[in-house]
Amino acid sequence: MIKDNETIEEFLAQHAADVEDAVRKAAAQEIMPRWRRLADHEVDRKSGPHDLVTDADRQAELYLTEALSALLPGSVVVGEEAVHANPASYEGIRGEAPVWIIDPVDGTRQFVHGDTGFCTLVALALGGVVHASWTFAPVHEELATAVRGQGAFLDGVRLHAGSPDPGSDLRVATSHPDFTTDDQKRSLLGLWTDGVAPRSCGSAGLEYLAVARGESDATAFCWEAAWDHAAGLLLVEEAGGTHLTRAGEPFRITGGNDLPFTAARDEATARRVTGLLSAGV
């Protein structure tokens, strides 16, 4: 726990490995045994036909909520499924207590279809600032971690986002059309231009990891749900990248952002993408 005279950095120095252990166990016990074995009654719809939830989402979030709350007494948990059941619980992100931000299965559609493109996302934030993150792709046994000011790592190897190759098309993962408004679609149309290769995103967490490891150049996302973004944004930052909203400001997990926004390998790429997004309006 964070004691009266202990900082969040000191807490992480002692317990980051415990968080990693909890994330791995949640996946091993609640997610992977259900992958490619889901029965019809274990899959439900939330807001629409493409917004799915499974027993793996629910049970993994419950596991992580219990484990992480025990690690850090006095902390609160903002998890995707708990917020769906009680939207008021999202306000924990704006409170004064340390907050665990959890997406138990990021990429639920892929998970339901038996694809490999899903992950578990956990971030620890305080006062609207993300201090640490864990991105775990259980099929591939890949774990990406970041602690503010200490770098980003994939399975212990430091990540460097780098910069796009000069003259090459920018590889940009964008919000899926099924989840965008007409205004957002018009903004994203700015990316359909020479020198840019946009495509619809899969798991947001894995798209952020692709930027952090230099396999993709940028994202262009149109929604604010912190469980999709908190872990990945810190990962990109600590790998040397940056993130900007269309207003040219860093994305805030507490909300009120000018959307769409981007996370990119470097500042020049971020400004190029946000400029294109503004041009599309």
From TrEMBL:
Gene3D superfamilies: 3.40.190.80, Fructose-1,6-Bisphosphatase, subunit A, domain 1. It is an enzyme of class 3 (hydrolase). It catalyses: a myo-inositol phosphate + H2O = myo-inositol + phosphate. Its EC number is 3.1.3.25. Keywords: Hydrolase, Magnesium, Metal-binding. PANTHER family: INOSITOL MONOPHOSPHATASE, INOSITOL-1-MONOPHOSPHATASE-RELATED. This is inositol-phosphate phosphatase. It comes from Streptomyces hirsutus.
